[in-house]
Every structure is written in C-alpha cells, then in structure tokens.
Specification:
Distance between the termini: 41 Å
Structural class: mainly alpha
Number of strands: 0
Number of helices: 7
Helix content: over 70%
Number of domains: 2
Order of helices and strands: HHHHHHH
Strand content: under 5%
Length: about 200
C-alpha cells in the first residue's frame, strides 16, 4: 500500500509542477505553448498509463492460483522504480523548459542505478516452485541470489557516478555497468557449477 501511495504522490507532483509551469509563463520564450505542453505532460501521462497496470494485473492474474499475491511485492517494486525513473526524467525536462541548463547525461547513471538496485531486490522474490520442472527451477533458485548481490552493489556505485566530473562520467558509467554484469554472471556461473 505504501508503494502505491508513493507512486500516486510522484504522479500528483508531476502534474502539479507541469500545471504550475504552464500557467506561470516562466517557460522559455523560444518554444511555443503547444510543444511546452507536450514536454510537460508527456511523462506524467506515461506514468499514469504504466501504473494503470497495477489495477489491471490483479484482475488478470487472480485466476492463476494466487500467483499475483505471491509476486505482488516484486511487481510493485518494479512499478515504483519505473515511476521514480520517469519522475527524475520529468524533473530534468521541466528544468530545461524553464530555462535552467541541465546536463541530462547525469540522469543516466541515476536511472540505471535505480534499475539495478530494484532488479537486485526483486529477482530473489521470484523463487520458482519445485514441481515437474524441478531441475530448471532449482537452477534458477540457486543462481539468482549470487546474480542479485553484485547488481545491488553496482547500482549503488552507479548512483555515485553523478559526482564524477563530466569528462569521466561516461567512463565511470560504462566501467561500473560492465563490471557489475561481469561479476554477476561470474558468481551465477560459479553457483551453477556447484550444483552440477
């Protein structure tokens, strides 16, 4: 419930900021009102569209033996992280609309860092039941935790990349991203080898 409230707050805040900027005439003069409106409201409407799935999914998956209730927290984490990323992008766009010079390149490590941390926290929730597909499900359950821990650490390091100077930002970003993926795959492979 708290996650849904935070999502709703992000959406409400995005619309409020967009309406205030549109009505205050502080947007840059070179852009016409129609293009400003598209910039200001495209992301809030996208947030509404994406999060409408939170109301639709329980109804669709209710017939699947309670599978939604089992994965509810993980699914809500995913939607919260997507909403947070869209909100950050919306802040960057609104700052550009009002004439503040913003380097949108700095938003990339923040967004990817949020994705990595969310993936690390969400993947272990999707443990598979050991049924007639015991071998494949068991492999998934064993390798997912070693895969998730480096993602979490890499996501945290990725967030720190915003403090790098602009000429080192992309180098730090790609180094962290590839290191995180390499270490995650390496530890997962080691876990897989241990059960063979």
């Amino acid at each position: 419930m708290i996650k849904k409230i935070i999502i709703g707050f992000f959406i409400f805040l995005s619309f409020t900021v967009s309406i205030n900027i549109l009505n205050s005439n502080i947007a840059t003069a070179e852009a016409n009102n129609r293009s400003i409106a598209v910039l200001l409201f495209s992301i809030p409407f996208t947030m509404c569209l994406v999060n409408s799935n939170l109301m639709i999914l329980p109804k669709i998956l209710s017939s699947h033996n309670g599978s939604y209730t089992r994965y509810k927290k993980g699914i809500e984490n995913i939607f919260l992280s997507v909403t947070a990323i869209l909100f950050i992008l919306h802040i960057g766009l609104t700052l550009l609309v009002v004439g503040v010079k913003v380097n949108l390149l700095y938003l990339i490590p923040v967004c990817i860092g949020i994705v990595l941390i969310t993936a690390a926290n969400t993947l272990p929730r999707f443990q598979l039941e050991l049924n007639n597909k015991k071998n494949a499900n068991e492999i998934w359950n064993i390798i997912i935790r070693p895969f998730s821990l480096p993602l979490f650490i890499g996501g945290g390091v990725m967030l720190l990349c915003v403090f790098l100077p602009s000429n080192l930002l992309l180098i730090g970003f790609f180094f962290t991203l590839f290191s995180t993926l390499f270490v995650s795959i390496f530890y997962s492979y080691k876990a897989y080898q241990s059960i063979k």
